[in-house]
Amino acid sequence: MPPTNSTNSSAPSSPEILPVISVLWPQCPPVYIFSSPSDVTLRPAPASNPSMPTDITILDLSAYVGLTAVGAITLNILLGTLMVFRYSPVRQWPHRRFNYFRLHNLSGYTALSLAVLHPVILLFDKSKKFRLLDLLYPVHSPSQPLENTIGAVALYGIVLVVVTSYLRIRLGRRLWKSFHFSIYVATAALFWHSLFTDPALKNSPVDWFDGGKLFVASCLLTIAIVAALRYRHSAQKSRITPARQGWPS
After folding, report:
1. 141: which DSSP letter?
2. What are phi and psi of 22, to 5 degrees?
3. What region does 29 belong to: left with phi over 0, alpha with psi -120 to 50, or beta?
4. Spatial CA neighbour of 128 closest among 136, 120, 187, 164
5. What's the rounded Cα separation, in Å, for the pair 154 and 147?
6. Across 190-219, average pLDDT
7. For residue 34, what is the enclosing H or E element?
8. Which residue from 178, 202, 212, 174 is spatially nearest to 66, judged by alpha carbons?
9. Is the bond preceding residue 94 a cis peptide, omega within 30 degrees?
């Protein structure tokens, strides 16, 4: 009898599949070794990091500009408070000359420019049907007329403060200062508009955990603390002045 090949006789009738457990790379799928090359099937690996959408809509751009205007107003008020406290960057930190009065003016001009640009961007969104009249007088605007009207009050208040600050020498200190305090009214209207306006203009409920709303709330808290400190400083100064002049306190 011809000799039999023990190897062939012991070979399985179907292709033998030997899984190789991936020990070093537990995130990878297991690799299989096939006894027959024709049984190998290659599958594309699933994408571990799918691409995220990066498209920015017109409404998103308008919202980002509005948030930047809120930040500029907050910076402007903080720098103005430093001027009230007669903060000196030479005598105090950082112990070097720094013209923060110019930065205060620059932040005001920046806030005004962004506050004007914020509603103008809506004119390029044809789906919302905003007209120029709806921006100047938004009482009958196609979406959220109350919130937009309060936003317009904030815009006109910022315009008043910036224009009178530019003309402060001609107006005189007393008249200019009376106009300048209207920045707090404009700021209150700006924060109300920013907190209660739906960025998508769909009259949806306010999402208080939205990143934009949290940013506005943090700026509002900062201004509230600074305003309290400023009021306290003014009260202490009013009590000290009569004592120095010999008046009864």
Report:
1. -
2. -80, 110
3. beta
4. 120
5. 11
6. 95
7. strand 31-34
8. 212
9. yes
So what's the pLDDT on residue 50?
Answer: 47
pLDDT the model gives residue 51: 47
For 112-166, how does the pLDDT look when each residue is reduced to its tens digit (9 = 90+)? 999 999 999 999 998 989 999 999 999 999 999 999 999 999 999 999 999 999 9
Q: Residue 108: enclosing H or E segment and its boundaries?
A: helix 100-120
pLDDT for the residue 67 = 97
Q: Report whether 69 contacts 63 (CB < 8 A).
A: no
The pair of three-digit structure tokens given for residue 152, joined into one six-digit string: 């317009």
d(CA 199, CA 191): 14
Give 229's DSSP letter: H
* pLDDT tens track for 81-114: 898 888 888 888 888 888 889 999 999 999 999 9
Residue spans per domain, the chain:
58-232
Question: Reduced to 3 states, what is the DSSP secondary structure of residue 48?
Answer: coil
Among all chains, which residue has been given the structure tokens 């030997």? 18
Tokens of 89: 């960057």
Contacts of 232 (CB under 8 A, 6+ apart): none
Q: What is the pLDDT of residue 185?
A: 94
Give the Cβ contact number of residue 131 at 10 Å: 13
In three-state secondary structure terms, 216 is helix
- Is the pTM value of this prediction over 0.70? yes
- What is the 8-class DSSP label of residue 136? H
Residue 24 and residue 27: Cα distance in Å, rounded?
Answer: 9
The H or E element containing residue 46 is none
| CA distance linking residue 33 with residue 240, whole number of Å | 90
